[in-house]
Records
---
Amino acid sequence: MAFEQHLRDAIRINRDRRRVYAPFGGAGLSRALVFLERLSLPIARAFERLARTQRRRALLELTFVPMKVARAESPTLYRGLGGRAQRRAARRLLGQLARNPRRARQVLGALIELEELHGAHLAMSRHLVESVGRSQAVIDRLDMGGVRFARALLAVQLAALPLAIPLDARAQRVHARGGGILVNDLPAIVF
């Protein structure tokens, strides 16, 4: 239940933290995140059902990390609004990743530079890039068994990339007011 559990934990975290982020204008974004996570649950359940073999179950466990997150009240590093230039550059980088998931490390590094340059977080973009990078790393270590299943999982993650920039833009408005939405709510994913 790695994929489904990851989403259920995210739903719980976002519901619990809605009250914390409401004074900073983040309640609407919290509701939107819960909505998107709930929409993703049937996809997660489908993958869980397909993971009948021990190998596929292990692939799910390797791909999805536990939701270990920072305290909601933790301050953010940046409080800026990235603006059109940051969004355009980030969109271009995510497009490169969609075309070649093996570029996840380079894209992640470039996103971090964009955050520093504009003084504004791209937390959801970074989270999805890390997730894609982890999935690609799992695929690269596989022999022939389970590759199609793992690539299907990767395709689902790549399909979510267009959602990242609009969510980051909304989150930046909350960061500007002192709320840590997304930055404190997403686990670090090592790949």
---
Amino acid sequence: MDCRVDRRRARSTHVGNLSTAIARELLVKKRSIKNRNAKSELVAFDDRTLDYSKLKPDLSPLEIARLIGPGLGTVHFPFFPIDTLSPAKTLGKGRTNLTFIRPTIVQVDATTPFASFDVRAQSSPAISMHFEPIAYGITSVATYIMEFTIQAFGTSTFTLGGFAGAGTLENTGTKHLNGLTTVALIMRNVPPIQQTNGFLQQSAGVAWNFFSAKVRFPDIVITQIDAQ
């Protein structure tokens, strides 16, 4: 009787040890396959997400209103974008599109698609957006805000500029940027048939990521700005 119990216990222990060994072997193989797959990729998948609550726009609605002209103040109603382009969506309507100038990496399957740039690796890297108003059904002269959302991994120097044809540009020139931010180019009094463009070009600093560029109308504001 005792011999039978001992044999059963031995078989149970053997089976348990065998199951544990098989489980360990499968885990090792799984890790090995994962490591081989990771090594086969030139750039690892980026699963980071953006915390837009930390976004720092270079211009507030009040500052934009002051640049556009007399009228309106701090309480405002934001417009939805006319269009938003990104590394995952580079073409809009008509001639509206993105141009990537000397990026180091473009990853469209990341959790937040991005293009990386670094003036230390490539001279004068830039992102540019072209916008054709009439392609969106706009038939009158209007003012637009073109916004570039980027993340600079250290203080970096950029030039914000563009072309508005018969219209005019505001908030152009040198920008010193750091962290997650939005840079706004104002295009005033643009004819609907005018093909416009804006660009953000790096001249000094460190690596930065581009996430999106959008065009929208200026916010509607309802209080008077103090004359200054």
---
Amino acid sequence: MSWELWGLSTQTGEILTKDLRLSHLIDKLSASVDHVISEKHQDEFKSLLSLARKTAEKRNTLLHSLWIVHNGKPIICVDRKRGILGDKDIAVEEIEKFNSEIIDLTFLFIEFEKKHQNLGLGLNLDSSTK
């Protein structure tokens, strides 16, 4: 979606974003909202970016923590910032719930893009929507 908002071709978009951390991509999208999203849709898009940032932070906590697994189930998870996380934080159900949150967030971005197909540089943005 970022490539389309910025009016980039697939090749150029891949070159510019392939090694970009998700948090940095969110930063760049946040910084360019005023330039690529019409004013009446900016709050909605900023809300999506905020949700994406929280999801990315949660993902990083889960992914970059030290996991101790016994009989195929996580029993201890140590986060470098918060220390040992409790059972509730590491339950398989919580990880599955987080996976669903990622899927839901993806669909929210897809729905935003469908509703606002002409919002971005190079996407027929006319002056009446700016």
---
Amino acid sequence: MKGVGAASDRTTGEIEYVVSKTDDGWRYTGKLLQAETLRNERPFDQPVDEILGGLEIALVVGNGGDVTSVHGYDQVTSRLHELFPATVAEKLEPTLGSEALAARALEDWYARVGDFVGLTVSIGDLRTQTAPYLLPNGNELMSQVETRFAGWEKCPPGRCIRIETHYDSEAAAAIELGARLATAKADPVADAVADPATASAQAGVAPADAASADAEEASTKAAQAKPRLVGNATRIIDPTTMLIYSESQEKTVSVEMQIEGLGPVALTVVETQVYSYEYEQ
């Protein structure tokens, strides 16, 4: 990353969750008890740790596994503006504001638990779907998510299932392109234009073989600036209680960011997360 450089952040934290029964479902309340971030192995003040420290975040979930409400994130945006100058807070809000963090909490819930509630699966089954991912610049990217129910593993309650997940935004884009091509092929207006060169001439536009080098360069730059997500995750889950006993995931995100003083900069973020869980009755 020219003009920016590379950095390695490592965050270790502890979150306490309390699960309580409600009349028509469950309430999951979490609080960040402590967190420490090292950037290139040196202590670093991570904004998200300061913003979320001590806040109680609650998801209210129905018996069917769907989230009915999210509580606690309404204080995040005001904290953001208390901790940082207005210009900095405004730039952080798309990724660290109340709406962004609430959306990410929902995304995490369904990826970890919600999408599996009530499913009947067999070992070896593969499930494919598309899902949104919030990029560091605040935009949303659709990704294809392949989930494989890989096998049984030993865990504290006895036997858990190993779930392996692969994320790829290019695959989602390919599916979308295929759908568009199928629609265009079925469109009688599209079929009526048999010769692209003739159509270009009628419109007063140069044919494709006369495209300038500048246009080709612009196309290449646009392709390079296109965001990309690819990654993998593994979770060990008790299918009876839906409790997770271990979890790891790695995602690589390539995106263009607007950096003050530098303009648009191609940024690649490699995010590795490892979780361990302890449960108390």
